[in-house]
## 1
Amino acid sequence: MFRLHPRLEADTVEIAVWPLSRVLLMNDRTYPWLILVPQREDVRELHHLSPEDRTRLVHEMALAARLLEDATKADKINVAALGNQVPQLHVHVIARFHDDPAWPDPVWGVVRPEPYDQASLSHTIRMLRGNMTPPQTAG
């Protein structure tokens, strides 16, 4: 049975459920930041997914990147699957801007996360969901 890692549960807000992944918004208004978590039990690495799920995940990563790019007009979209602190397989999809606090370096550890206030969280979720196209079956 799939269960979201407690750290991801604490740091994010679910905005959608796609065929493979839960789509989460990182609760940090500094960077528009989605996290995709494949709904598979005990999967830690990309290569642990079945070939079909790997294909589906890449498709969903591209959709998340396009969603952020279209919604935010980002200068660059960063995609990463690290898992050093949260062992559950998850993929970060982060909108980056030339004037963000970490540019051009990675976002981790540069500034403390700044949680959304309720109004900006609601606005961001509406904006993302409004631009969201339901994923189609890959292949």
## 2
Amino acid sequence: MKVLGIETSCDETGVAVYDTDAGLRAHALYSQIALHAEYGGVVPELASRDHVRKLLPLIRQTLAEAGLGIEDLDGVAYTAGPGLVGALLVGAGVARALAWALEVPAIGVHHMEGHLLAPLLEDGPAGRPQPPFVALLVSGGHTQLIHVEAIGRYRLLGETLDDAAGEAFDKTAKLMGLPYPGGPQLAMLAERGRPQAFRFSRPMTDRPGLDFSFSGLKTQVLLAWRDSDQSDRTRADVARGFEDAVVDTLAIKCGRALDASGCDTLVVAGGVGANKRLRARLQAMAEQRGGRVAFPRPAFCTDNGAMIAFAGALRLRAGQHDDASVRVTPRWDMASLEPVVSG
């Protein structure tokens, strides 16, 4: 089954073709970072307009790279939420129109389920991880620990009570004067920082539970930066101290989640999942515990069409599809999803 995937939840236009027999055939991504940089963040109306401008050319490009004609598609998957409502409607409208014209099924995919399944998209050295496992979804909008009993059967173990980890990266970078998007800039800067030059708290690790909170950490960094000499050396050291605090906090909570669920496999997805220090720390933790951790390749940590094509293909192959109406769900609880039962 050849499925076209469309991702337009925020400021990246992603398109991919996934073949349930041959795997990922092709994918393309257009980022709007340059468009939004002058505003210091995503402007929803501009994001929607740019999706309109780029989506059809990307679909043509991706089909050509896959060696397929549009008539070869067996289904269409698109991000239906959560996300920016205008941006979501662009992808949903194009997807539903294509599916109607081709007389093939279409399905709206939960954006975070796409991220959660991204580590299963391609075979790793140890093969694809199979449920049950614990998933850490860590991005600009979400920080969640989820027990994955089966595809489509998810139980929330813990989540952030305020800022997500990626959001904290971006806001901390901004208060230190780093350019947009700040999170990746801060991570690069932290590579030059001295460990222990600044030590910040590991929020909510001194009490039981699996929830997160990063707003207080952000405030600690603000105070430390404000009272420092604000030199380049200090900026790198503060960035390192902040990154170490976030990585330690995530690792401690992941260990607790594995213990609580009785699982030995951890899956990590979302934009912050590309962070090198986080990957190294979780890999070391998994080896020490005699378990396993799986990541998507860095290109599939951030928003992309491949994860939507894959998640949609799993559901379409199981016989699930939506009706012909164009609907999106900007706020959508992943626990409400139907389980996937393979035929």
## 3
Amino acid sequence: MNAVFADQRKSGPAAAPITRDAGLWQRLDELGLVRLTGREETGGSAAGWPEAAELMAAAVRHGIRIPLAEHDLLACWLLDVVGLPADGAARTICVLGHDGTARHVPWASTAERVVVVWPTGIHYYAADLDVSDPAVQITQGTNMIGEPRDSISADLTALAGTPVAAGQLTQLKLKSALVRSIQVCAALDRILELTIEHTSSRAQFGRSLSKFQAVQNMVADIAAEAALARAATEAALTAVVQSAWSAPNLEFLVAVARSCAGHATSVVVRNAHQACGAIGTTMEHRLHEYTRPALTWRSEFGSVQSWDAVVTDAARCVGSRGLWSLIAD
């Protein structure tokens, strides 16, 4: 997997808007990775979420920004489950509000098609639209690291679509959340590697930085928080695989993963920049390529506070007697 991304490594400032790398996209498509989890009869590779998670993590480790998850795990997945065809065009997905708008849509301005989900009364519908379709208007925007996060607006009365079941909409929400948790965890693991590399190779007062107890404590906290976030995310991923997205406590597990990853990011980013010192704040050093994405991604598809609230509500719901079974099951 590393060989796929090895010559596509990005470095330097990320302030400018990032565009989808068409050459890398084509290469991944030729390798069967763009539709990694799609059914073979629809042109996919019939892999699962564990493989998709490793692909996403590999992209993060190499600083690659590309909408693999939005295309394969979200947009094309929804097309499959509602019975709509998916060709080779690059896609993203959004859920419009009752006012016909969606904000912070990943990669919409660089996609070729957008899967749009919208409400009509108490029901939801989906359509696969070309980005040039006059029914939708895309206003470009970016997140903190320059990834496209655009606004989409549409006249709901002009759209015709296929019904989306409530369970499918819930799955879309949880899939989106788990995607970001996987990406955050990959960034935290890379931050740990960079911090260990720096503190082991730099000397101060005649000895390695890694020999100072204060630095050791900071690195240990980074390792512990990254491991906690990864364990929570892997627990949710395991439940996903074993239950095919039908586990009764799946929302709780995804919420725990997002909560742990979100709070871990605060500790990991702070300690890593303290341990690396001034050089870690420069564009020339690679640390920012992982600390800034971790901070950005932890707030997408639900804020840390919102996922904390889901965990709290679930605990309150089961009460003190049911808390252990909620955690242990």
